[in-house]
Amino acid sequence: MSHVLLKVSNLMKSFNNHIVLNDISLDITKGEVVSIIGASGSGKTTLLRCLNLLEQPNDGSIVYHNQNLMDPTIDINKHRMNMGMVFQNFNLFQHLNVIDNLILGPKKLLHVPHEQAVREALEKLSLVGLESFAYQSVRTLSGGQKQRVAIARALMMHPDIMLFDEPTSALDPEMVGDVLNVIKDVAKTGMTMVIVTHEMAFARDISDRVIYMDQGEIVEIQNNDQLFISPQKERTKAFLSRFMNT
Amino acid sequence: MRKIVTLIILLTAIFTVSACSTDSGFDITSETEIVVGLEAAYAPFNWATPTENSFTVPIANQSGFYTDGFDVVMAQEIADALGLTLVIRAIEWDGLIPALLAGEIDLIIAGMSPTSERAQTVAFSDPYFQSEQVMVVRNDGDFANATSLNDFEGARIVAQLGTLQDDLIDQIPGVNHLDAVNDYATLVTSLLNNASDGFVAELPVAMGIVAANPSLSYITFADGDGFSVSAEDVTVSVALRQEDTALLSAINEALTAISTETRNGYMEAALSRQPQ
Amino acid sequence: MFIFNVLPPRDAFFETVWYLISNYQTFFLTGIFYTLMLSIIGTGGGFMIAFFFTIVRTRKIDRLRQSTITILLTKLSQGLINVYITIFRGTPMMVQAMIFYYGVSRLQLSFWTPIVAGFVVVILNTTAYISEVLRSGINGVDQGQLEASRSLGFSHGQSMRLVILPQAIRQSLPAIGNEFIINLKDTSVLSVIGVTEIFRATQLATSPNYRTTEGFFIAAILYLMMTLIASLFVNRFEQSSQRKEAMV
Question: C24-247 in CATH: which number?
Answer without folding.
Answer: 1.10.3720.10
